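Memo to structure team: turn this sequence into C-alpha coordinates by end of day. - J.P.
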Amino acid sequence: MFELLLSADMMLEDPDGMADLLESKLGIYKHENWRQAFDNHPYIAHFLRVHKSLAVSPTRVEPQWHLDRPNPGDPMFHDFLESLKKYQGAHRPMITHSIVLAMHESKFNKLVEKLVHRKLPFRMAQRTPEMPFDRLWLGTTPEDSRYTPAVDGGLCIEVMPTEPLQMPAETYADTPAQPRNSKPGDMVRVTARGFLVRDLEHTIACLSTNLDWEVTSVDDIEGEGYRRAVMPFTVANSAALHIIEPTKWDSEAGLYINNWGPGLYYIRIGVNNLAAKAEDLKKRNVKFTWIEKSDATGGNPLIKIDPSELRGQLFEFEEI
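Reply from structure team:
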Protein backbone atom coordinates (compact mmCIF):
# COMPACT_ATOMS: atom_id res chain seq x y z
CA MET A 1 0.00 0.00 0.00
CA PHE A 2 2.46 2.65 1.21
CA GLU A 3 5.73 2.83 -0.70
CA LEU A 4 8.04 3.95 2.08
CA LEU A 5 8.59 5.52 5.46
CA LEU A 6 10.01 8.88 4.40
CA SER A 7 11.94 9.67 7.57
CA ALA A 8 12.71 8.69 11.11
CA ASP A 9 12.02 12.09 12.63
CA MET A 10 12.70 13.78 15.93
CA MET A 11 11.18 17.12 16.89
CA LEU A 12 13.56 19.12 19.08
CA GLU A 13 14.95 22.61 19.44
CA ASP A 14 18.15 23.43 17.57
CA PRO A 15 17.83 20.89 14.75
CA ASP A 16 20.99 22.35 13.20
CA GLY A 17 22.96 21.41 16.30
CA MET A 18 21.34 17.98 16.37
CA ALA A 19 22.35 17.39 12.75
CA ASP A 20 25.94 18.23 13.68
CA LEU A 21 25.73 15.88 16.67
CA LEU A 22 24.44 12.96 14.57
CA GLU A 23 27.26 13.53 12.11
CA SER A 24 30.00 13.64 14.72
CA LYS A 25 28.68 10.91 17.04
CA LEU A 26 27.30 8.37 14.55
CA GLY A 27 28.83 9.32 11.20
CA ILE A 28 25.46 10.11 9.60
CA TYR A 29 25.82 12.23 6.47
CA LYS A 30 24.56 15.82 6.35
CA HIS A 31 24.66 18.44 3.61
CA GLU A 32 23.40 22.00 3.31
CA ASN A 33 21.28 20.95 0.31
CA TRP A 34 19.47 18.51 2.60
CA ARG A 35 18.46 21.28 5.01
CA GLN A 36 14.94 22.59 4.42
CA ALA A 37 13.65 25.96 5.61
CA PHE A 38 11.07 28.33 4.10
CA ASP A 39 9.95 31.80 5.18
CA ASN A 40 6.29 30.97 4.52
CA HIS A 41 6.59 27.58 6.25
CA PRO A 42 8.56 28.47 9.39
CA TYR A 43 10.42 25.31 10.26
CA ILE A 44 13.89 23.83 9.92
CA ALA A 45 14.38 20.21 8.93
CA HIS A 46 17.47 18.20 8.03
CA PHE A 47 16.94 15.13 5.85
CA LEU A 48 20.11 13.31 6.85
CA ARG A 49 21.28 10.09 5.22
CA VAL A 50 22.95 7.01 6.67
CA HIS A 51 24.03 6.13 3.12
CA LYS A 52 24.52 8.68 0.36
CA SER A 53 22.36 6.73 -2.11
CA LEU A 54 18.62 7.20 -1.63
CA ALA A 55 18.02 4.01 -3.61
CA VAL A 56 20.04 2.08 -0.99
CA SER A 57 18.57 3.93 1.99
CA PRO A 58 15.39 5.88 1.09
CA THR A 59 14.38 6.52 4.72
CA ARG A 60 16.14 9.62 6.03
CA VAL A 61 16.91 10.68 9.63
CA GLU A 62 15.11 13.96 10.27
CA PRO A 63 15.88 16.32 13.16
CA GLN A 64 13.42 19.20 12.83
CA TRP A 65 11.70 22.02 14.68
CA HIS A 66 8.88 24.47 13.95
CA LEU A 67 9.55 28.10 14.71
CA ASP A 68 7.16 30.34 16.63
CA ARG A 69 6.47 32.67 13.71
CA PRO A 70 3.49 33.34 11.43
CA ASN A 71 2.87 30.46 9.03
CA PRO A 72 1.14 31.87 5.93
CA GLY A 73 1.81 28.67 3.99
CA ASP A 74 -0.20 26.58 6.46
CA PRO A 75 -1.78 28.84 9.12
CA MET A 76 -3.61 25.97 10.83
CA PHE A 77 -0.49 23.91 11.44
CA HIS A 78 0.60 25.70 14.62
CA ASP A 79 -2.59 24.78 16.49
CA PHE A 80 -2.40 21.21 15.21
CA LEU A 81 1.23 20.92 16.28
CA GLU A 82 0.47 22.24 19.77
CA SER A 83 -2.27 19.62 20.14
CA LEU A 84 0.17 16.97 18.92
CA LYS A 85 2.74 18.01 21.53
CA LYS A 86 0.06 17.92 24.22
CA TYR A 87 -1.07 14.46 23.08
CA GLN A 88 2.48 13.09 23.29
CA GLY A 89 3.36 14.78 26.57
CA ALA A 90 5.18 18.02 27.24
CA HIS A 91 8.22 16.36 28.82
CA ARG A 92 8.61 13.30 26.57
CA PRO A 93 12.25 13.16 25.35
CA MET A 94 11.21 11.97 21.88
CA ILE A 95 8.27 13.53 20.08
CA THR A 96 7.21 13.42 16.45
CA HIS A 97 5.79 16.07 14.16
CA SER A 98 4.36 13.13 12.15
CA ILE A 99 5.12 9.63 10.96
CA VAL A 100 5.49 10.52 7.27
CA LEU A 101 4.31 7.84 4.85
CA ALA A 102 4.73 8.21 1.09
CA MET A 103 2.77 6.54 -1.69
CA HIS A 104 2.46 6.89 -5.45
CA GLU A 105 0.07 9.65 -6.48
CA SER A 106 -2.55 7.27 -7.89
CA LYS A 107 -2.66 5.45 -4.54
CA PHE A 108 -2.70 8.75 -2.67
CA ASN A 109 -5.77 9.87 -4.63
CA LYS A 110 -7.55 6.61 -3.80
CA LEU A 111 -6.65 7.01 -0.12
CA VAL A 112 -8.22 10.48 -0.02
CA GLU A 113 -11.36 9.12 -1.70
CA LYS A 114 -11.47 6.33 0.87
CA LEU A 115 -11.16 8.74 3.80
CA VAL A 116 -13.95 10.92 2.38
CA HIS A 117 -16.20 7.90 1.79
CA ARG A 118 -15.60 6.58 5.30
CA LYS A 119 -16.12 10.07 6.80
CA LEU A 120 -12.81 9.90 8.66
CA PRO A 121 -11.20 13.13 9.90
CA PHE A 122 -8.23 14.42 7.91
CA ARG A 123 -6.79 17.73 6.76
CA MET A 124 -4.80 18.71 3.69
CA ALA A 125 -2.39 21.62 3.60
CA GLN A 126 -2.85 24.14 0.81
CA ARG A 127 -0.40 23.93 -2.08
CA THR A 128 2.12 26.78 -2.05
CA PRO A 129 4.98 27.90 -4.32
CA GLU A 130 7.41 26.34 -1.85
CA MET A 131 5.39 23.13 -1.55
CA PRO A 132 3.23 22.73 -4.68
CA PHE A 133 2.03 19.26 -3.71
CA ASP A 134 -0.43 17.63 -1.33
CA ARG A 135 0.24 16.77 2.31
CA LEU A 136 -2.40 15.08 4.43
CA TRP A 137 -2.71 14.60 8.19
CA LEU A 138 -4.96 12.01 9.81
CA GLY A 139 -7.12 12.65 12.85
CA THR A 140 -7.64 16.39 12.35
CA THR A 141 -9.86 18.64 10.22
CA PRO A 142 -9.68 22.26 9.02
CA GLU A 143 -12.51 23.16 11.40
CA ASP A 144 -10.95 21.36 14.39
CA SER A 145 -7.16 21.36 14.33
CA ARG A 146 -6.73 19.15 17.41
CA TYR A 147 -5.20 15.73 16.78
CA THR A 148 -7.26 12.65 17.66
CA PRO A 149 -5.94 9.06 17.43
CA ALA A 150 -9.29 7.77 16.13
CA VAL A 151 -8.00 7.10 12.60
CA ASP A 152 -4.42 5.86 13.05
CA GLY A 153 -4.45 4.50 16.60
CA GLY A 154 -2.08 7.15 17.92
CA LEU A 155 0.66 7.01 15.27
CA CYS A 156 0.34 10.71 14.25
CA ILE A 157 0.47 9.86 10.54
CA GLU A 158 1.10 12.28 7.68
CA VAL A 159 0.81 11.08 4.07
CA MET A 160 2.21 12.56 0.87
CA PRO A 161 2.75 11.41 -2.73
CA THR A 162 6.16 10.04 -3.70
CA GLU A 163 6.41 12.05 -6.92
CA PRO A 164 7.58 15.35 -5.30
CA LEU A 165 10.38 13.46 -3.55
CA GLN A 166 12.11 12.84 -6.90
CA MET A 167 13.58 9.57 -5.71
CA PRO A 168 15.93 7.75 -8.10
CA ALA A 169 14.17 5.16 -10.25
CA GLU A 170 16.28 2.41 -8.66
CA THR A 171 14.42 3.01 -5.39
CA TYR A 172 11.37 1.22 -6.79
CA ALA A 173 13.20 -1.56 -8.67
CA ASP A 174 12.12 -5.16 -8.10
CA THR A 175 15.69 -5.99 -7.09
CA PRO A 176 16.67 -3.76 -4.12
CA ALA A 177 19.69 -1.53 -4.70
CA GLN A 178 22.81 -2.61 -2.81
CA PRO A 179 25.71 -0.46 -1.60
CA ARG A 180 28.84 -0.40 -3.73
CA ASN A 181 32.32 -0.84 -2.24
CA SER A 182 30.89 -1.04 1.27
CA LYS A 183 33.60 -1.12 3.95
CA PRO A 184 33.38 -2.76 7.39
CA GLY A 185 31.49 -0.46 9.73
CA ASP A 186 29.70 1.43 6.96
CA MET A 187 26.04 2.19 7.54
CA VAL A 188 23.73 0.75 4.87
CA ARG A 189 20.18 1.90 5.60
CA VAL A 190 17.65 2.74 8.29
CA THR A 191 16.04 -0.64 8.93
CA ALA A 192 13.31 0.20 11.46
CA ARG A 193 11.53 2.93 13.36
CA GLY A 194 10.02 1.80 16.67
CA PHE A 195 6.81 3.30 18.07
CA LEU A 196 5.38 2.43 21.51
CA VAL A 197 1.63 1.96 22.04
CA ARG A 198 -0.45 0.79 24.97
CA ASP A 199 -2.80 -1.46 22.99
CA LEU A 200 -1.23 -3.13 19.97
CA GLU A 201 -4.45 -4.81 18.79
CA HIS A 202 -6.32 -1.52 18.84
CA THR A 203 -3.69 0.31 16.79
CA ILE A 204 -3.34 -2.36 14.10
CA ALA A 205 -7.14 -2.68 13.96
CA CYS A 206 -7.38 1.08 13.28
CA LEU A 207 -4.82 0.78 10.48
CA SER A 208 -6.64 -2.18 8.97
CA THR A 209 -10.21 -0.85 9.28
CA ASN A 210 -9.55 2.78 8.36
CA LEU A 211 -6.60 2.59 5.96
CA ASP A 212 -6.61 -1.04 4.73
CA TRP A 213 -2.98 -1.23 5.88
CA GLU A 214 -2.38 -4.79 7.03
CA VAL A 215 0.32 -5.95 9.42
CA THR A 216 3.07 -8.25 8.12
CA SER A 217 3.64 -10.09 11.40
CA VAL A 218 3.04 -9.85 15.13
CA ASP A 219 5.78 -11.41 17.26
CA ASP A 220 6.43 -11.82 20.95
CA ILE A 221 9.97 -10.50 21.49
CA GLU A 222 10.28 -12.12 24.90
CA GLY A 223 13.83 -11.08 25.69
CA GLU A 224 12.96 -7.42 25.14
CA GLY A 225 9.66 -7.66 27.02
CA TYR A 226 7.37 -6.51 24.23
CA ARG A 227 5.12 -7.59 21.37
CA ARG A 228 5.97 -6.16 17.97
CA ALA A 229 3.86 -5.63 14.87
CA VAL A 230 5.77 -5.01 11.65
CA MET A 231 4.06 -2.73 9.15
CA PRO A 232 5.19 -3.21 5.55
CA PHE A 233 6.18 -0.93 2.68
CA THR A 234 6.43 -1.84 -0.99
CA VAL A 235 9.96 -0.40 -1.31
CA ALA A 236 12.19 -3.17 -0.01
CA ASN A 237 14.90 -0.81 1.28
CA SER A 238 12.45 1.36 3.24
CA ALA A 239 12.68 1.22 7.00
CA ALA A 240 9.93 -0.89 8.54
CA LEU A 241 7.56 0.58 11.10
CA HIS A 242 7.67 -1.44 14.32
CA ILE A 243 4.62 -0.91 16.54
CA ILE A 244 5.46 -2.09 20.05
CA GLU A 245 3.41 -2.92 23.13
CA PRO A 246 5.43 -3.69 26.28
CA THR A 247 4.53 -6.98 27.97
CA LYS A 248 6.71 -6.48 31.07
CA TRP A 249 6.49 -3.31 33.11
CA ASP A 250 10.18 -3.48 34.06
CA SER A 251 11.57 -4.17 30.59
CA GLU A 252 13.29 -1.24 28.84
CA ALA A 253 10.19 -0.68 26.72
CA GLY A 254 7.90 -1.08 29.74
CA LEU A 255 9.84 1.41 31.82
CA TYR A 256 9.95 3.85 28.92
CA ILE A 257 6.21 3.82 28.29
CA ASN A 258 5.50 4.08 32.02
CA ASN A 259 8.00 6.95 32.36
CA TRP A 260 7.06 8.92 29.27
CA GLY A 261 3.94 7.43 27.65
CA PRO A 262 3.35 6.11 24.12
CA GLY A 263 5.19 7.51 21.12
CA LEU A 264 8.52 7.37 19.34
CA TYR A 265 11.01 4.70 20.34
CA TYR A 266 14.16 3.55 18.54
CA ILE A 267 15.73 4.33 15.18
CA ARG A 268 17.55 1.18 14.06
CA ILE A 269 20.31 1.32 11.43
CA GLY A 270 21.77 -1.63 9.55
CA VAL A 271 25.54 -1.72 9.09
CA ASN A 272 28.12 -3.77 7.28
CA ASN A 273 30.03 -5.57 10.08
CA LEU A 274 28.65 -4.59 13.47
CA ALA A 275 31.94 -5.19 15.28
CA ALA A 276 33.64 -2.67 13.00
CA LYS A 277 30.90 -0.12 13.78
CA ALA A 278 31.51 -0.71 17.48
CA GLU A 279 35.17 0.18 16.95
CA ASP A 280 34.14 3.32 15.06
CA LEU A 281 31.89 4.37 17.96
CA LYS A 282 34.74 3.84 20.42
CA LYS A 283 36.98 6.12 18.34
CA ARG A 284 34.21 8.73 18.46
CA ASN A 285 34.03 8.33 22.29
CA VAL A 286 30.36 7.35 22.08
CA LYS A 287 28.90 5.36 24.97
CA PHE A 288 26.95 2.27 23.93
CA THR A 289 25.87 -1.18 25.03
CA TRP A 290 26.82 -4.28 23.03
CA ILE A 291 24.16 -6.99 23.30
CA GLU A 292 25.63 -10.29 22.15
CA LYS A 293 22.31 -11.99 21.44
CA SER A 294 19.19 -9.88 21.11
CA ASP A 295 15.72 -11.30 20.56
CA ALA A 296 14.93 -8.06 18.73
CA THR A 297 17.29 -9.07 15.90
CA GLY A 298 16.60 -12.81 15.86
CA GLY A 299 19.39 -13.68 18.29
CA ASN A 300 22.03 -11.59 16.54
CA PRO A 301 24.10 -8.85 18.20
CA LEU A 302 22.69 -5.36 18.69
CA ILE A 303 24.28 -2.05 19.64
CA LYS A 304 22.25 0.41 21.71
CA ILE A 305 23.60 3.95 21.90
CA ASP A 306 23.38 5.61 25.32
CA PRO A 307 20.57 8.18 24.84
CA SER A 308 22.55 10.76 26.83
CA GLU A 309 24.87 10.98 23.80
CA LEU A 310 22.06 12.12 21.49
CA ARG A 311 19.79 14.43 23.50
CA GLY A 312 17.58 11.55 24.64
CA GLN A 313 17.05 9.96 21.22
CA LEU A 314 17.32 6.16 21.00
CA PHE A 315 19.53 4.81 18.21
CA GLU A 316 20.46 1.19 17.59
CA PHE A 317 22.72 -0.64 15.12
CA GLU A 318 22.30 -4.12 13.73
CA GLU A 319 24.19 -6.26 11.22
CA ILE A 320 22.70 -6.26 7.76
